[in-house]
Specification:
single chain; mainly alpha; ABC transporter involved in vitamin B12 uptake, BtuC; 2 strands; about 75% helix
Length: about 325
């Protein structure tokens, strides 16, 4: 009986990765049949996935606590716009990089501290912050003078606008997050706190401290994602990173992470989910499916993944 349960759990754990491999295989087959440029398509997939994958990797720490942050996309936009302004003022990309990271971490920490001070659920403060940051995006664009965009010279970022650089950023950041999440007390405490906050508090784990650490890690990811956005699309507008917040939520669930967080949280879910989403979008583009059908297909797969990820766990949830 135990072996059967372990096998079933292993299958459930591998389902997201097998789904990604299946989507990759379907993309390659359809690309060959339709005679499209597969190499260019793969480059497009990486470029479209990388920002979401980076930001979602950091967001796993927040979701592990059983909470979520819907202001991540707006935070990335503000950080990217401010980083672009910093480059235009100094002519130094490293300064822009530091501004992106520093501002994103400050915004994330402000979210967690605000929730702690007023004893509010984290998601409540992030909803409020979403409106503030969206308004700040418009203010920053107006301050630029044109009122439409903040442009970084493409020649300045061209040396970094390579698949290799973007993958290095993702891999290095993912390895850092994986180490903290899987091999330190921080990761274990956050999983316990997300799975059973009552038990975690009784063992002396500080929910406020863990929230601050989670948001700090997520802030680093947002800052890196903002800088990569500048590199990939140096003309920044009010639509920069506009869909990232929702894409992060979908990517994490697509990657097989339970929406409730806790011990079954997985750091690899972010990358698997981000690339799975993009492969699916490219496949629907190859098949010439209109946006309405595409959204229906994504919704159906989203529900299926949530069902598989929570299967056999519904009656095992600890009191919260």
């Amino acid at each position: 009986m135990m072996r059967k349960q372990n096998f079933k759990q292993q299958v459930i754990n591998l389902t997201p990765f097998m789904g990604l491999l299946l989507l990759f295989a379907v993309f390659m087959v359809l690309g060959t049949i339709k005679d499209i440029n597969v190499a260019y398509g793969m480059k497009t997939i990486v470029n479209q996935s990388i920002v979401v994958a980076i930001i979602a990797t950091g967001a796993v720490f927040i979701y592990t606590l059983g909470s979520f942050d819907i202001s991540l996309g707006a935070s990335a936009a503000v950080s990217a716009l401010t980083g672009g302004m910093a480059y235009n003022a100094t002519g130094n990309l490293f300064v822009a990089f530091l501004v992106c990271i520093g501002l994103a971490v400050m915004i994330s920490l402000f979210n967690s501290i605000l929730a702690s001070v007023f004893n509010l659920p984290v998601f409540v403060t992030t909803i409020a912050m979403l409106s503030v940051l969206n308004a700040l995006v418009l203010v920053l664009i107006r301050l630029n003078g044109t009122g439409d965009e903040i442009a970084v010279p493409s020649a300045a970022v061209k040396p970094l606008d390579t698949i290799g650089f973007k993958l290095v950023v993702l891999i290095v950041y993912w390895c850092l997050c994986a180490f903290v999440f899987c091999f330190t007390k921080i990761g274990r405490k956050q999983k316990l706190l997300g799975g059973n906050p009552i038990c975690a508090k009784l063992t002396g784990i500080s929910d406020k401290k863990m929230a601050i650490i989670a948001f700090a890690m997520a802030g680093i990811g947002v800052g890196l994602g903002a800088f990569v956005s500048i590199v990939y699309a140096p003309t920044l507008t009010r639509n920069t990173a506009s869909s990232v917040g929702m894409d992060v939520i979908i990517a994490i669930v697509f990657g097989g992470m339970p929406v409730s967080g806790g011990a079954r949280s997985k750091i690899q879910s972010a990358v698997i989910g981000a690339f799975s989403m993009t492969f699916l979008s490219q496949i629907m583009t190859i098949l010439n499916l209109n946006s309405g059908i595409g959204q229906m297909v994504k919704a159906a797969i989203f529900l299926l993944v949530v069902f598989v990820a929570t299967f056999n766990q519904r009656n095992k949830m600890l009191p919260r």
